[in-house]
Amino acid sequence: MIRYLATAALAAAPLLVNASPAFTPDTVHRGVTGCFSWSWKDGGALTTTVYYRNRCDTAHTLRIRWSSAASGNEDIKVKAGAKGSTWSFVSLKPLGFADLGRA
């Protein structure tokens, strides 16, 4: 009986793979704005996380402009050489980044 079920499962496996929708990998966006390098990935269901790093020797402020008016602009003071992340619950992607200069 077990051998029969295993054989049936193996025979049906290609049907299940072909029946599923095509999987597309998420796209990672990377860039540099002033002292900051940043990245974020498409594909978040409700949130998007942005990762950033200050590449300068002084503290700077990073501005992230989110796609939702509810999220608006977010200003983050980042120490020299520090890295971190931030996320938005309402916005599915950031629309822009700006280095506002020394913090």
Task: Kindly describe this structure.
The protein is of the alpha+beta class. The chain has a single domain, classed as Immunoglobulin-like (Sandwich). 17% of the residues lie in helices and 46% in strands. It has one helix and seven strands; from the N terminus they run αβββββββ. It has a four-stranded antiparallel β-sheet with strand order 1-2-3-6, with no helix packed on it. It has a three-stranded antiparallel β-sheet with strand order 5-4-7, with no helix packed on it. The longest helix has 18 residues, at 2-19. This is Secreted protein. Keywords: Signal. Residues 1-19 form the signal peptide.
Relevant terms:
103 residues, alpha+beta, Immunoglobulin-like, 4-stranded antiparallel sheet, 3-stranded antiparallel sheet, 1 helix, globular
